[in-house]
Amino acid sequence: MPAIAFDDVFQPIADAAAIAFNELRDGVWDAVKNVVLLQLKQIATAVVDIVEGLVAEPPYYTEEAAKVLMEMAITAAVQTIAAATELVITEVQAAMRRILNAVRDVVSATIDTVLF
């Protein structure tokens, strides 16, 4: 088996990781930005409505109703944002595949054998 230096193994893998995660950072925000901003806008709209309803004369929300409405708005936003983060998981998996492909390529090029 031919000898190989640590840097000959590490550097291509590190380079692949840097590229993958740099692309991940950009791609993640682009993938979830619209969903997250929309949900934040919906929470802000709910807050404005609730506050206006509590301070109106006479108030059109009770404190208890305002709490329920706020909880509903937050729950809806959290669930939608959580669903959008599934896109992030997909992006991380793609980055990991690129890193593992780099490991495979370095090993295969060095010993002319596929170990995984």
Present the secondary structure layout.
Blueprint: H1 6-55, H2 63-111
Helix pairs in contact: 1-2
Question: Which terms summarize this structure?
Answer:
mainly alpha; single chain; 116 residues; rod-shaped; 0% strand
Question: Describe it for me?
Answer:
The longest helix has 50 residues, at 6-55. The radius of gyration is 25 Å and the shape is rod-shaped. The mean pLDDT is 81. By secondary structure, it is mainly α. α1 packs antiparallel against α2 (63-111). The chain has one domain. It has helices at residues 6-55, 63-111.
**Low-pLDDT runs:** none
How would you spell out the order of helices and strands? HH
Structural class: mainly alpha
SS element count, helices:
2
Shape: rod-shaped
- Tell me the domain tally: 1
Query: How much β-strand is present in the residues?
Result: under 5%
Helix content: over 70%
Mean pLDDT: 81
Span between termini: 17 Å
Largest sheet, in brief, is:
none
Number of beta-strand segments: 0
Could you tell me the radius of gyration in angstroms?
A: 25 Å
